[in-house]
């Protein structure tokens, strides 16, 4: 059978489950997934020369890292040409583009410093999500920013956050797509602190000061991303899950953002999604793959990634969950890392859309658990790959491994020349 015949055969099989694969493909094409710029340069950014801090690490030293805005945009374009589906551009403030010798510190950033990125996003018909960069900067004092006991330090970072509110609104107005602005700080302590409450009270106050910056809540979606520990802050992080959830629950219009690398290894974010959907109109995610710790490995088509996609789809929450990828692997070709991760989550969304959720819920509600188990297991061997190939064909990208030849050629022609 050729690919078309295989798709037609798969279509019939899924029709037997009450699934219209043509409609699934149409729907998947419209689900935006935010693609993080920082996989392309190991989270280095353009505005500082110092090391990556904040308790995160991009391990490896694969040649060809993007060093300039132009190189990063070129690499993202290459990667996006290999990915099916709708993308948003996810930027950090540290990726500001200064021209003609200009420079602005983090608290002085303006929309004009991101005009090149808006041009890039418009060229690719993308919305833009944004992140204040509360790390990798000299004004991180003793590892602290918004929680610092030093007022001047807090005020610098509050000004940075306010500047990012203004830039986020600029992005939304320029692209016509709301901007998710994610607040994450690495503030914490390596060893047992004497005061866990004080930093959190200051953090709450600082975020409230940032959000006092006027903005249109239809255009800017502020989020607070939690974390359980970081490298060098193993004993305490101010922005814990309880803090982030409580802040979002008590501040109108603020979304909790869950990164599935930010919990204890046995905790599953997939299970947390339907819990939060009971209480929050909207939530945000960073989809990643933690190995032993919050290692930010490339997302794969693995169980938890599939479960995360399933919870979003089967709870009819595609319009309530802002999906972003967050991983940075410096040990492999970065174009391939971007591409594998994005395609993996597209596969997870497709798998979820091809699952007969109502049929399975009915079996659960009727306590027909034996049949439920049987059917959930049998569906795993349905021909997802034939629908995937048709989806990729319609999106104009390779369904199988052929795309990697293009990555190898790009490495040969472009990346290898970056000395
Ligand atoms: C670069 C991102 O802001 C960062 O990865 C953050 O989202 C995070 O997950 C830190 O562990
Ligand atoms: Mn994250």
UniProtKB/TrEMBL annotation:
Its EC number is 5.3.1.14. Its cofactor is Mn(2+). One of its GO terms (molecular function) is isomerase activity. Binds 1 Mn(2+) ion per subunit. Pathway: Carbohydrate degradation; L-rhamnose degradation; glycerone phosphate from L-rhamnose: step 1/3. Its main location: cytoplasm. Mn(2+) binds at residues 262, 294, 296. It is found in: Cytoplasm. Keywords: Cytoplasm, Isomerase, Manganese, Metal-binding, Rhamnose metabolism. It is an enzyme of class 5 (isomerase). InterPro entries: L-rhamnose_isomerase (IPR050337), Rhamnose_isomerase (IPR009308), Xyl_isomerase-like_sf (IPR036237). Pfam families: RhaA. It catalyses: L-rhamnopyranose = L-rhamnulose. Gene3D superfamilies: Divalent-metal-dependent TIM barrel enzymes (3.20.20.150). HAMAP family: RhaA (MF_00541). Belongs to the rhamnose isomerase family. Catalyzes the interconversion of L-rhamnose and L-rhamnulose. This is L-rhamnose isomerase. It comes from Enterocloster alcoholdehydrogenati. The lineage of its organism: Bacteria, Bacillati, Bacillota, Clostridia, Lachnospirales.
């Amino acid at each position: 059978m050729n690919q078309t015949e295989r798709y037609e055969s798969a279509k019939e099989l899924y029709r037997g489950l009450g699934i219209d694969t043509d409609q699934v493909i149409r729907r998947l094409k419209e689900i935006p997934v935010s693609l993080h710029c920082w996989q392309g340069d190991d989270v280095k950014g353009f505005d500082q020369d110092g090391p990556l801090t904040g308790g995160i690490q991009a391990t490896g030293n694969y040649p060809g890292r993007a060093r300039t805005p132009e190189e990063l945009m070129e690499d993202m374009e290459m990667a996006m040409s290999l990915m099916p589906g709708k993308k948003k551009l996810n930027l950090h403030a540290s990726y500001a583009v200064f021209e003609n010798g200009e420079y602005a510190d983090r608290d002085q950033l303006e929309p004009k410093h991101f005009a090149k990125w808006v041009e890039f996003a418009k060229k690719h018909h993308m919305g833009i999500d944004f992140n204040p960069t509360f790390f990798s900067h000299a004004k991180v004092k003793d590892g602290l920013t918004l929680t610092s006991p030093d007022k001047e330090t807090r005020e610098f970072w509050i000004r940075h956050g306010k500047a990012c509110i203004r830039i986020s609104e600029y992005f939304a107005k320029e692209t016509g797509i709301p901007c998710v602005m994610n607040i994450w700080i690495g503030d914490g302590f390596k060893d047992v602190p004497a005061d866990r409450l004080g930093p959190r009270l200051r953090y709450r106050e600082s975020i409230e000061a940032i959000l006092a910056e006027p903005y249109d809540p239809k255009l800017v979606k502020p989020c607070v991303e939690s974390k359980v520990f970081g490298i060098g802050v193993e004993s305490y992080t101010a922005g814990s899950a309880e803090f982030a959830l409580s802040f979002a629950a008590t501040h109108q219009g603020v979304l909790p953002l869950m990164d599935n690398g930010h919990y204890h290894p046995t905790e599953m974010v997939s299970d947390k999604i339907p819990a939060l959907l009971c209480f929050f109109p909207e939530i945000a995610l960073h989809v990643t793959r933690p190995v032993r710790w919050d290692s930010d490995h490339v997302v794969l088509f693995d169980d938890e990634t599939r479960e995360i996609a399933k919870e979003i789809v089967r709870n009819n929450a595609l319009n309530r969950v802002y999906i972003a990828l967050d991983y940075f692997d410096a040990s492999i070709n970065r174009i391939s890392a971007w591409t594998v991760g994005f395609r993996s989550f597209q596969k997870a969304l497709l798998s979820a859309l091809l699952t007969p959720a109502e049929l399975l819920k009915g079996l659960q509600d009727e306590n027909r658990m034996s049949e439920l188990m049987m059917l959930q297991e049998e569906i795993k061997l349905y021909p997802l790959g034939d629908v995937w190939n048709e989806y990729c064909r319609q999106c104009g990208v390779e369904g199988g491994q052929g795309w990697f030849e293009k990555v190898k050629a790009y490495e040969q022609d472009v990346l290898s020349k970056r000395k």
